[in-house]
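Example protein
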Amino acid sequence: MRKIGFVFAVLFLIACGDDSSSVISGSDPESSSTEKQKSSSSAKESNKSGESRSSSSTKSVSSSSEKKAESSSSAKQPKSSSSSADKDESSSSAAGSSSSFVMPVPCKTETEDDCEYGELKDERDGKTYKTVKFGNQWWMAENLNYADSAKTPSLKGKSWCYGDEPDNCAKYGRLYTWAAAIDSVALATDSENPQDCGYMRSSKNILPDVVHGICPDGWHLPDYRDFSNMLVHVGGYSIAGTVLKSQSGWNEGGNGTDTFGFNVLPAGIGYGNGSFDGLGDGTDFWSATESDLEQAFSLYASYENEYSGVMDYGKNYAFSIRCVKD
């Protein structure tokens, strides 16, 4: 069983240049000094055989802490490295020892819910989503479940219900590749091959400063900094998993407290070759920030950890989406 938030190896057979890739642990998109360890060619051959995204020892959002435990003996184990989310969290931890730092006050308990909620209606398909305010930002408090590939060609062959079961879409939202998440066709500059970004395709000079992607009108795909700021707002990476996860639905005692109304559900992920993994174990949410040709950043949460953070994963995995208001 896959443990979400770990590093995986996977086969993807999708458009926009997507095929098999190996994933490395998180790195800082703003730091040229961060070194990433790529997997060996033999590991990539293993990926092509359809093995699931594997577990590893990885970093936490603090460069001095371990993110996860090792999984099966077949898992590849890339080197971890720190990220700017790590730096933000390290700063917030340091601030915690000063009189100027004020720990955030949870707005939800098991008996009371005083979070500031709203509602978003997606005019494209009429679906409505609960929203919640984090600091000065409004976020979707439910996963996106938009599927119209006729209106949005970027979704064709790049989004799924977990296990191809419609009931899972109703409960957990859809799973999208990164190319689908950023709405690659809408950003296309090549009329011959309009899906010009995704796995092994750079988005450099293509992505705008704010990527609306497949989010509803007036909302956009969060970037690396949005997720990093969220981690600081909820008190840091070391407790983020607990306070962001829903109060039920997680495996093996992994439920959270959902003390900020964000209601992270263990939606699992998709591999794009017809396989899925991790339902009940964890989840990842795409950001609009590219790491390199192969990876982009996502926010992860796992049933087995109190912490949560931002890592880079293969663009051809299928993850959940939470949009943030413009």
The chain is about 15% helix and 15% strand. The first strand starts at residue 9 and ends at 10. The radius of gyration is 18 Å.
